[in-house]
Write the C-alpha cells for this entry.
Amino acid sequence: MNKVALFDFCETIANFQTADAFIDYVRSITRRRSMINKEKIRLFLKRTYILKVLGRIYPRYSLNKRLILWQLRGFTEHELEQYAQTYYEVKIKPNLISDVVKELINHQNNGWRVLIVSAGYEIYLKYFCLDFNIPLEDLIAVKIKFKRDLCLGCFDGGDRLWDKIDKLNERFDRSSLISIAYSDSPTDLPLLKWAKEAVVVRRSDKISWSNNLNFKEIVWSK
C-alpha cells in the first residue's frame, strides 16, 4: 500500500503563523506607502469591531486575511518571489520545530510520500519544499493571484481547509493508503481525521485539546 504523511505547516513545522507574517515582513522591508495606508484601514476596522462583525456575518470569507493580502496589490511577481525566498531563509528556517522536521525526514527515509497541506502561501512554502526534497506537486497551499506579472492582492482559488481536503480526495483513494497527518490546531480536525493516524503538535505551555480523541502528540518548547 502507498504511504502518505500529511503535514500542516504553521505552528506544526514552523513555530509561528507564517501567512500574515509574510505580508508584515514585506511591509517592514519596503515601507511602501500603499501598504502602510491599507494596514491603517485594516487596524481601524479591527479597533472599531467592524471587522469582527463582518467576520461573524461572513465566517468563511477570511476577511482579515484578505485585507492583509490586499496590501501586496501592485507588486511584481519577481519582487514578491525575491521577498518570499528571503523570508523563508531569515524568518522561517530559523524557526522550524526540530522534532517535527525529524519526523518528516524519517517518513521520507522510510518510503513515505510527504505532502505539505497549509493555509500559508505557496510563494514561500515552495522554498521549504525545495530544501527538503518535497516535489512542488505535493505542496497544497494558498496561491496568490497575479495578472500580467502584477499581484492582484487576492487569493488564486480558495484558502479554506475544505478546499485542501477536496484536493486530497481528488488525488488519493483513502482506502488504499497508509496515512498519517500532523497538525497543531483543532480547526484541522478534518485533515487529522482524513488520515488513518493523527499526531497533534503542541507547544509545552499550551493545554492539550486532543486527549479525548486518542491522538498522539509531539510536545515542543521554545
